[in-house]
Amino acid sequence: MKRSPLMPSHHEKVEKIELFFDLVFVFTFIQLTLKLEHHLSVHAFLEVLVLMSLIWYIFEGYIWLTNTTKLTRRNHQIFMTLGMIGFMLISVAIPKAYDQDGFIFGLGFLVIVAVHSTLFLLHSNEDTKKAMLAIVPYNVSFSIIILVASLFEGDVRLVVWGIVAIVAVLGPLVQKNRGQFEVSSWHFLERHYLILVIALGETIASTGRAAIDEDLTSDVVLTMILALMLTVLLWYSYVKDDEARENRFKDMHTDKRDQTAKAGFYWSHLSMFLGIILLAVVKITIVHDPMQTLDLAHRITLYVAIVLFGYGVIYFNRLFFKVSWKRLVVLAVLLVIPLIAPYLPAIILLLVIALIYFIAMIAPLPFLKTKQKET
């Protein structure tokens, strides 16, 4: 029997192996955070941006894999072992990916793409296979280019990998579909929710690790509490409309659901992930010395982190609701206040940032109210 366009597709359940697989992916967050923590600069941020774009692109492909194909238990095990090996290679290579470990990064990316393409083509229905056949040659080409570029030194890798990242993430938006991906709404939303929660959890862990080397004085403990509060606010702004979001995503026509998944999920979550990484860098610095006044580089980093996360949340919600961009404007404007207050102690700055985020992104202010889209 032909499936109705409005009927949710198969594989609604998130498998335990997928959650285990996420843990290796999140190791990249630790590595990217450490890379920026040790070298906080515009150039280092560009390097992290390119790496995160590439890593999230292919990890998103694995979300599509488990969402739109039927994998047996045996194939899940293959997916776990080989895919995790690829992501482990990528993760351990991150600190020196633009130096002597670039080839390891490229090799890991090639392994991930090979496993992803093979499983997709072997375990998809005919319509999904047609859609995937249009993507596989590009993914394989990307991985080969990344591997070859790793043989060059200097900024060649940054430029080439950056171009690959741009082409990779823009491709699905302009490429004409030959087939149709049938996105399972609940599974797709849940997978993104879980990986974001794990990423936020990593910022809590990184803050805790920073406190290990410090005496647990009252200001350090209070900083830990404020850092946790801010993380909770970020989390809540993302999940507060999750039930309504799930219903709207499920009720979309198959074509609309496919395009929404392609157009919005990657960009919104990439923005949030970058915000999480930048925020972790600043929180670690604050925990080491809560009463310091942050230098301009760290204040700008904190500003960009919160704006990126706020932008990602609003962009994501606008796929389903009439969310006003006024929230982002209010957030960006109010954040200027602590940015231009160089003598504000870091611990107070963290409190002010948390209050601003609550007011701009969560508080039920009438002129910022979220509305349901008309169907």
Helix and strand sequence: HHHHHHHHHHHHEHHE
The total of beta strands comes to: 2
Q: How would you sum up the global shape? A: globular
Number of helices: 14
Biggest sheet, open or closed, and with what strands and sense? Answer: 2 strands, antiparallel
Radius of gyration: 21 Å
Structural class computed from helices and strand pairing: mainly alpha
Query: What is the helix content?
Result: over 70%
pLDDT below 50 for ≥5 consecutive residues: which ranges?
Answer: 1-11
Notes on the protein architecture:
With 375 residues, this protein is mostly helical. The chain is 75% helix and 1% strand. It has 14 helices and two strands, in the order ααααααααααααβααβ. Strands 1-2 form a two-stranded antiparallel sheet. α1 runs antiparallel to α2 and α12 (296-317) runs antiparallel to α13 (326-339). It is globular, with a radius of gyration of 21 Å.
